[in-house]
Amino acid sequence: MARILVTGGAGFIGSHLVEFLLKEGHEVLCLDNYFTGSRENLLHLRDQPRLEMIRHDVVEPVMLEIDQIYHLACPASPVHYQYNPVKTIKTNVLGTLHMLGLTKRVRARILLASTSEIYGDPLEHPQREEYWGNVNCLGPRSCYDEGKRVAETLMMDYHRQNRVDIRIARIFNTYGPRMALNDGRVVSNFIVQALSGKDITIYGEGKQTRSFCYVSDLVAGLVSLMNCEEQTEPVNLGNPEEFTILELAHKVLALTKSASTLVYKPLPADDPVRRRPDISRAKAKLGWQPQVLLEEGLKATIPYFAEKLK
Ligand SMILES: NC(=O)c1ccc[n+]([C@@H]2O[C@H](COP(=O)([O-])OP(=O)(O)OC[C@H]3O[C@@H](n4cnc5c(N)ncnc54)[C@H](O)[C@@H]3O)[C@@H](O)[C@H]2O)c1
C-alpha cells in the first residue's frame, strides 16, 4: 500500500483515478480547489476510510508525506482554461513547481498529466513523442499549451538537476462519465445536444479528425506509467483510432436515437485539423494499449449525461 496524492482528484479523470487507486488498496489524498471538479464526483467514495479530501489550490505550496503524486490539477477544456488564462498559466507553472518541490523533499515519484496540446496544430501524423510540435505562443489556447510545455520542462529540469523521479503522460482526448456538462468539448457537446433534442454543432465541415480514449483505458495507462521502472521520457496515452467529427456526430445520433439536426459553424482559432497519437512507446515500455471501442465507450457515457440532464 502506498500513500498517493492526486491533485485535481475531484475532476473528471482524477475521480476515476482516485477510485482505481482505492480499489488497489492504496491510501489516497485528493487535493482540489473545485474549480472544475466537484465533491459530487467522489460522493460514492465518501465512506472510504483510505480517502482524504484536501481543499487546496496548487498555486500555493503544500507539505504532505506521500510516496507518489499524480499531478492532474489544471482545467482541461478550453471554456474553463480560457476563463482566466493567467490563472491557468499559474496553475501549470507554479502548481507544477510546488509539486516538484514536494516530490524532491519527500523523495516521492511524480507523474505529470501533460497533453497532446503540446503538439499544437501538428505538422506530423501521427504524433510521436520525439515531435517538438507546432504551437502558437500568442493565441487563446497558449495559456494551456505553453503552460503544459513549461510544466514538462520543469519536470525534466528537476530530474536532470535534482534526480527527481518523474513520469510525463501526454494525454490525448479522453471521454467518459463525470465529464462536466458544460465542458464544451466535442463528445460531451454532442451527447448533451443529442439528448436534449438540440441542433448538433459542427465546427468547420466536420472533416477534422480526433481520437477518443475512454477514461478507464487512460487510467490504466497512467497507473502503468507511474509504476514502470525508469521512464523519464514522455509517453503518449490515447486511442490511435481516428474519427472525423462528422463520424462521431452520426454515432452519437444513432446511439441516443436522437432526431437532432447537424448545423455548421466556423472553425475556432488554432483548432487543430488532425490529431492522433503514435502509441508505440506506450506499447513497448508499458505493454499498454486501449481496449474500449468508441461505440462501447459512448454507450457507457450516454446514461451518465442522461441522468445529469434529468
Ligand atoms: N480530459 C482530457 O481529454 C485531457 C486531455 C489531455 C490532458 N488532460 C489533463 O488531465 C488533467 C485532468 O483533466 P480532466 O479532463 O479531468 O479535467 P477537469 O477539469 O475535470 O479536472 C481538473 C481538476 O483540477 C482541479 N483544479 C484546477 N485548477 C486547480 C488548482 N489551481 N488547484 C487545485 N486544483 C485545481 C479542478 O477543480 C478539477 O477537479 C488536466 O491536467 C488536463 O490538462 C486531460
Going by CATH, the architecture of the domain at 3-176 and 214-238 and 276-291 would be: 3-Layer(aba) Sandwich
**Poorly predicted tracts of residues:** none
Would you list the SSEs in sequence order as H and E?
A: EHEEEHHEHEEHEEEHEEHEHH
Q: Report strand %.
A: 15-25%
Strand order of the largest sheet: 3-2-1-4-5-6-11
Going by CATH, the homologous superfamily of the domain at 3-176 and 214-238 and 276-291 would be: NAD(P)-binding Rossmann-like Domain
The name of the CATH topology of the domain at 3-176 and 214-238 and 276-291 is: Rossmann fold
CATH first level of the domain at 3-176 and 214-238 and 276-291: which class? Alpha Beta
N/C terminus separation: 40 Å
Major sheet size, sense and barrel closure: 7 strands, parallel
**Number of DSSP helices?**
9
Q: Over all CA atoms, what is the radius of gyration?
A: 19 Å
Mean pLDDT comes to 96
Give the tally of β-strands.
13
Bound compounds: nicotinamide-adenine-dinucleotide
Approximate shape: globular
Helix content: 25-40%
Structural class: alpha/beta
What does this structure look like?
Helices cover 38% and strands 18% of the residues. It is an alpha/beta fold. It has a domain at 3-176 and 214-238 and 276-291: Rossmann fold (3-Layer(aba) Sandwich), CATH 3.40.50. It has a 7-stranded parallel beta sheet, sandwiched between helices. A two-stranded parallel ribbon has the order 7-10. Strands 8-13 form a two-stranded parallel sheet. Helix 5 runs parallel beside helix 7 (245-256). It is globular, with a radius of gyration of 19 Å. The mean pLDDT is 96. Bound molecules: nicotinamide-adenine-dinucleotide. Nicotinamide-adenine-dinucleotide (NAD) binds next to helix 1, helix 3 and strand 5.
